[in-house]
Write a structure and sequence with these properties.
Blueprint: H1 2-34, E1 41-45, E2 49-53, E3 70-74, E4 82-83, E5 96-98, E6 106-107, E7 121-123, E8 143-145, E9 151-153, H2 155-160, E10 176-179, H3 201-245, H4 251-263
């Protein structure tokens, strides 16, 4: 009996230690997945899920420790200048993202990669975005607030707008501050609401002119070759004729010709 009791006691201690370690590991993993990001305030409710608020924290980089079960992230009124590739790739449940009122001038390609199936609203208003890069919004079908940015409207923007899947009404937020060409009359207008304006007309004209120049160049080369060919053949013919004239006349043929003339 003492041996049995000792064996049971030892095994009970080992089992308790294993169970304690398992519980501790589970708690650590859960904490890592659901804890709040540093310098941010987190809240959670049944209706809106987990919300992370990092507003007005003077942040210069997108936080990388946002809980992966977050549904709403507010990063407005900070000092971000760029949104890097895969910045929110670890947030598969995100439905709302607010990046307004920052200093963002660049959205790298794939900046919102991984959010296409979940994100419903993106706010990048009141930043310093100038060029519209469709690769930055790849896969997104959400609504987006693009207003209050110094957009530059040119042929690249006109073509880029055809390559994004954002909700069409969102593109009305692109109001041209500058344009190329300058005098086309889109400054201060929402480009999507100016369907009669073609920003690629200059490029098309330039392409047409370039094609005409190339065609004229080829035509000139063909004509030059033909002229050279004709002149070269004329020179060869002249030399051949001079060669024939320089050949000596055979006497026998001349006497025969005289005899024939006499008979006639």
């Amino acid at each position: 009996m003492p041996l049995l009791a000792d064996w049971l006691l030892r095994h009970s201690v080992v089992m308790c230690l294993l169970l304690h370690s398992l519980v501790l590991m589970t708690f650590c993993f859960h904490h890592a997945a659901t804890s709040c990001s540093k310098s941010c305030y987190c809240s959670e409710s049944e209706s809106s899920g987990k919300t992370v608020r990092c507003s007005n924290q003077q942040l210069t980089e997108i936080p990388q420790d946002i809980p992966n079960d977050t549904q709403r992230v507010y990063l407005d009124f900070n000092l971000f200048t760029t949104v890097p590739t895969n910045a929110f790739a670890g947030l598969p449940y995100l439905i709302e993202l607010d990046l307004s009122h920052n200093e963002i001038s660049q959205l790298e390609p794939g900046a919102f990669r991984g959010l296409g199936s979940s994100l419903q609203f993106l706010d990048v208003s009141s930043n310093k975005l100038v060029n519209f890069n469709p690769e930055s919004f790849e896969g997104l079908r959400s609504r987006a607030n693009l207003t209050n940015n110094p957009w530059h409207c040119d042929c690249n923007l006109q073509m880029a707008m055809l390559r994004v899947d954002l909700e069409p009404a969102s593109l009305t937020g692109i109001v041209c501050q500058t344009s190329d060409p300058e005098g086309i009359g889109v400054q201060g207008l929402a480009f999507l609401l100016a369907p009669d304006i073609d920003l690629c007309v200059v490029m098309k004209r330039t392409t047409d002119v370039a094609m005409l120049v190339v065609m004229f160049g080829w035509f000139t080369m063909v004509i030059s070759y033909l002229v050279y060919y004709v002149r070269a053949n004329q020179e060869d013919a002249r030399r051949h004729l001079e060669y024939l004239k320089s050949l000596p006349i055979i006497p026998g043929k001349s006497e025969e010709s005289s005899t024939i003339s006499t008979v006639v």
